[in-house]
From TrEMBL:
Domain Glutamine amidotransferase type-2: start-end pairs: 2-214
Alphabetically ordered keywords of this record: Amino-acid biosynthesis, Asparagine biosynthesis, ATP-binding, Glutamine amidotransferase, Ligase, Nucleotide-binding
Family, as annotated: Belongs to the asparagine synthetase family.
GO process terms (BP): asparagine biosynthetic process
Entry GO CC: cytosol
NCBIfam families in the record: asn_synth_AEB (TIGR01536), trio_amidotrans (TIGR03104)
Enzyme Commission identifier(s): 6.3.5.4
Record-given protein name: asparagine synthase (glutamine-hydrolyzing)
Organism in which the protein naturally occurs: Micromonospora parathelypteridis
Coiled-coil ranges per UniProt: none
Length: 592
């Protein structure tokens, strides 16, 4: 896991090395173990390293292969790199390292851009064909690893984080009105390629972009799960359970590939508990597990230690409870905001940031349970989609998921920021209207798995863990698991209140008390119920001079929220004032 950045000139001029160099300090937390730089012709690359595979200097980046005429910077992990390495050696390639980075170089030389179809893993990389001055940018199937871009006169810059691009300079920091509409509608999610800033874009997941020396750019979408049952042979419920559990066993085993120990973030929910169970089943002993809890607020519990302790005892893990008191909380909120590449409203960000800080002191790699709810229908907005006609799916989804509808948004945003069309509903309609996705629920799960999941929970985990040089791996987002879940009949996923097929498959593997418990979330009561110093900070941000000059929100709506900070909730139960406050806190933090 690492931080990458660079510049590709399209105008015959050399890259701005000073600008690219300014990215490195901002990327340092993603790679605290070293840094590297390389420049030739129109391209400059920089890299910050976190040593996970091949801890020697032979695995350092940027990695250049003069014989093949290729250079690369890479963030992520190719879990099947050993198998690919053996295949490439059999084809006549030689290696000077045991790193997965070098496998990317040789694989590209042998198979071209189609190499990504052979990679099992999470990745974002920038590869240079030195002789032809061609830049190849690629991102993994589920967008687990980020890649941001800023186009300028005669050049393209790219980096693992948005703040790294800002540090390089010369970025249009005006707000994108369509992205603002999405932020206010999709629970802070801004789908790719947009970000909230007009001058920064992100490479979509499962995409390879080839940019040639003359500036031409071509995108290839190399993966798209079907979300229907046309290609799958009919199977019984028991067979589906067996197939999904077999795929998860493989996914968890793949994610143990490392030259350092691997632990688990254990929330006490089914998903993370199952990861622990499958690792124990595969013979892992003394597994390091970690859980976090906060002080209660407004009568709401701030921890789920009962369940995480139960799992830790059952599987005899080396478990650490992390308890966060009130004195650490408000500073941690601001630290979490500073770690965000984009504004993310979920209070889970603070939990993951604090958890990662503690975990990184003991271990460098963890597995985490993100993704199961989106691919296996674990959220409470999925059952209402079950009996909706396919033609009515867009409206039904908007009704259960949108924070606010376009008409209501007119009462919240200042008139100059309102669009004359419902951009968010149009986006969903286009996504739902694509071929495939047999039922309304299939369409909702496809939308959430390929869009919401990428730019909410997945991005949240990447940003917060990498702020502390901690690599998080997510076995539920193994692409083979996602493909299987997409083909699974909706009724099996919705059974038992959601994730029914996973719950049934987990019987006898995970304690029943964990399977049968009510649905839980990372509880952070102090954000759900704003008061005290954090409320003061939100109020200050929303009334500060930059916020007044920006004028995003209607004055009467702001006054209503500030007068009753915890009265207004979004459709999904989040604090509406926090959504507005978080956006302003983030914008002011990055200096916009």
């Amino acid at each position: 896991m690492c931080g990458i950045g660079g510049e590709f000139r399209l105008d015959g001029r050399p890259p701005d090395l000073a600008a690219v160099e300014r990215m490195l300090p901002v990327l340092a937390s993603r790679g605290p173990d070293g840094e590297g730089r390389w420049q030739q012709g129109p391209v400059a690359l920089v890299h910050r390293r976190l040593r996970i595979i091949d801890l020697s200097d032979a695995g350092a980046q940027p990695m250049v292969d003069p014989a093949l005429g290729l250079a690369v910077v890479f963030n992520g992990c190719i879990y099947n790199y050993r198998e690919l390495r053996d295949e490439l050696i059999a084809a006549g390639y030689s290696f000077r390292s045991t790193s997965d980075t070098e496998v990317i170089l040789k694989a590209y030389h042998r198979w071209g851009t189609a190499c990504v179809e052979r990679f099992y893993g999470m990745f974002a990389f920038a590869l240079v064909e030195i002789a032809t001055h061609t830049l190849v940018l690629a991102r993994d199937r589920l967008g687990i690893k980020p890649l941001y871009l800023a186009q300028g006169p005669g050049r393209v810059r790219f980096a693992s984080t948005l703040p790294a691009l800002l540090a390089a300079g010369d970025v249009d920091t005006d707000l994108d009105p369509v992205a603002l509409h999405h932020y206010m509608t999709f629970h802070s999610v801004v789908p790719p390629p947009r970000t909230i800033l007009a001058g920064v874009r992100k490479l979509p997941p499962a995409t390879v972009r080839v940019i040639t020396a003359d500036g031409r750019s071509t995108d290839t979408l190399y993966w798209q799960p079907e979300f229907n049952r046309a290609a799958a042979a009919p199977m019984s419920a028991d067979e589906w359970q067996e197939r999904i559990m077999a795929a998860l066993r493989t996914a968890v085993r793949r994610r143990m590939v490392a030259d350092v120990p691997v632990g688990v973030l254990l929330s006490g929910g089914l998903d993370s508990s199952l990861i622990v169970a499958l690792l124990a089943e595969q013979g892992q002993t003394g597994l390091a597990t970690f859980s976090i809890g906060f002080e209660a607020a407004a009568g709401e519990s701030g921890d789920e230690f009962h369940y995480s302790d139960l799992v830790a005892r059952h599987f005899d893990t080396d478990h650490q409870q992390i308890r966060i008191g009130a004195s650490r909380f408000v500073p941690a909120v601001h630290d979490a905001i500073a770690a965000m590449s984009e504004p993310m409203v979920s209070h889970d960000c603070v939990a993951f940031h604090l958890l990662s800080e503690e975990v990184s002191q003991r271990i460098t790699v963890v597995q985490s349970g993100q993704g199961a709810d989106e691919i296996l229908a674990g959220y409470d907005w999925y059952p209402p989609m079950a009996n909706v006609a396919r033609a009515d799916a867009v409206e039904a989804y908007a009704r259960v998921f949108f924070d606010r509808r376009h008409d209501a948004l007119g009462g919240h945003l200042a008139p100059e920021w309102m669009l004359d069309h419902d951009a968010s509903l149009e986006f969903v309609a286009a996504h739902f209207g694509a071929p495939g996705a047999d039922t309304a629920l299939d369409a909702a799960l496809r939308q959430d798995s390929l869009v919401m999941l990428v730019d909410d929970p997945v991005k949240r985990v990447d940003n917060m863990t990498m702020a502390w040089g901690l690599e998080a791996r997510v076995p539920f987002l193994d692409h083979e698991v996602v493909e299987l879940a997409a083909a699974c009949p909706p009724a099996l996923k919705l059974a038992q209140g959601g994730k029914g097929v996973l719950k049934a498959a987990s019987r006898g593997i995970v304690p029943d008390e964990v399977i049968d418990r009510p649905k839980g979330y990372f509880p952070v009561p102090a954000i759900r119920h704003l008061s005290g110093p954090l409320l003061d900070d939100v109020r200050d941000a929303l009334t500060a001079r930059p916020a007044r000059e920006r004028g995003l929100f209607r004055k009467d709506y702001l006054e209503e929220l500030l007068d009753a900070p915890n009265a207004r909730r979004t459709t999904l139960g989040s604090n509406a004032l926090w959504q507005l406050g978080l956006l302003e806190l983030w914008l002011q933090r990055i200096g916009v």
